[in-house]
Specification:
Blueprint lengths: L2 H10 L3 H33 L7 H59 L4 H14 L2 H9 L2 H12 L5 H15 L33
Length: 210
């Protein structure tokens, strides 16, 4: 089984905690139905065949209080489950944002490294920024691993395919700015990561190929 299949399997299979929460919600829903059945049966008996000495109003009041508590608990669990789903979706979106930012910074690094000073650097920066905002490029970045996306974009736009170097420079830029991709068990990243144009990697002298 490859990585893609593993990811899909993990996404499709709910965690044990989620399974328990769903089971508890089903149990509470069934309990609420039982309460309603008792109320209906009590009403029917009170109207059609009342028993001597039975306080049907009190019986219904007791069941109604129990039903209200059941519904409150069901609502609480439902809101907790929804909050967990939203938090998971936010974490996933944050991971995608950091993935995209890393690729964009890597491509900005490539543009800076091969450009000259002054107007040439400014032109390449503006051109790269415009290219990275194209829908088809955004889609490519989202659908590919960083190494694959950077290599494909370098070939498409005629930049040296030095993928490890460009990604390393992107990581250094993110570290210097304090915007690192979140690791397992660490706090979530800041809400507003920097844009590539304002966080361009520092220039490096190209390696001596002679």
């Amino acid at each position: 089984m490859d990585a893609t299949q593993t990811d899909r399997t993990s996404e499709a299979a709910p965690a044990p905690q989620e399974e328990r929460a769903a089971r508890h919600l089903r149990m509470l829903a069934r309990a609420a139905d039982v309460h309603m059945e008792i109320i209906e049966a009590t009403r029917t008996e009170a109207v059609e065949a009342p028993q001597p000495g039975v306080d049907y109003g009190q019986r219904i009041a007791v069941v109604t209080r129990s039903l209200r508590l059941t519904l409150l608990l069901e609502d609480k669990l439902s809101r907790q489950a929804e909050e967990k789903r939203k938090a998971a979706a936010q974490r996933e979106a944050a991971q995608e944002d950091w993935h995209g930012l890393r690729v964009q910074l890597a491509m900005m690094a490539a543009a800076y490294e091969v450009s000259g000073d002054g107007e040439e650097a400014d032109r390449r920066e503006a051109e790269m920024h415009e290219r990275l905002e194209r829908p088809e490029v955004v889609e490519l970045i989202e659908a590919s691993r960083p190494e694959v996306a950077v290599a494909a974009l370098c070939r498409r736009w005629g930049y040296p395919v030095r993928v490890e170097q460009w990604l390393e420079m992107a990581d250094e830029a993110m570290e210097e700015l304090g915007f690192l991709p979140p690791q397992d068990g660490e706090d979530d990243p800041p809400a507003d990561p920097p844009k590539p144009r304002s966080a361009a990697p520092a220039r490096r002298k190209p390696p001596d190929t002679g």
